[in-house]
Amino acid sequence: VGTLAVNVSGAWLLGLLGALALTPQIALLAGTAFVGAYTTFSTWMLETQRLTEERQILPAVANLAVSVVLGIAAAMAGQWIASML
Questions:
Q1: How far is CA 10 from CA 42, 51, 55, 71, 85, in A?
Q2: Residue 40 — φ and ψ, nearest 5°?
Q3: Distance of alpha carbon 79 from alpha carbon 55, whole angstroms
Q4: 62-68 long-range CB contacts below 8 Å, 24 or more apart?
Q5: Cβ(44)–Cβ(3) under 8 Å?
Q6: Could you tell me where the DSSP H helices lie in 20-56?
Q7: Can you tell me whether residue 54 is helix, strand or coil?
Q8: Taking the CB of residue 39, how many other CB atoms lie within 10 A of it?
Q9: Own/partner pairs, 40-43, CB within 8 angstroms, 24+ separation
Q10: pLDDT tens per residue, the chain (85 residues)?
Q11: What is the full DSSP assignment across the chain?
């Protein structure tokens, strides 16, 4: 749950930053340096891989699906909020 919360909030922040009128250099720096350091993609993949090793296929698939769906929704929400600013 902790990894999911961090990754979804990072997707929201990346969506927000991506929709702001930033220079390409600033957007790249903010997106890769700050948000990339904040989010935990490698931890998410390791947790999913460990679930599959333990033959917990349904939780592993749910981990992938929920993370992707919520991440996309959060990024879209961030973009929407930025468009309102």
A1: 14, 23, 29, 8, 19
A2: -130, 60
A3: 37
A4: 63/4, 66/4, 67/4, 67/7, 67/8
A5: yes
A6: 24-29, 36-38, 41-53
A7: coil
A8: 20
A9: 40/3, 40/6, 40/7, 41/7, 43/3
A10: 889 999 999 999 989 888 887 788 888 888 888 887 888 888 889 999 999 999 999 999 999 999 999 999 999 999 999 998 8
A11: -HHHHHHHHHHHHHHHHHHS---HHHHHHIIIIIIHHHS-HHHHHHHHHHHHHTT-HHHHHHHHHHHHHHHHHHHHHHHHHHHH-
> Which residue type occupies 77?
A
Assigned token pair, 84: 């309102």
Pull the structure tokens for residue 20. Answer: 């702001």
Q: Which two tokens stand for residue 83?
A: 């468009």
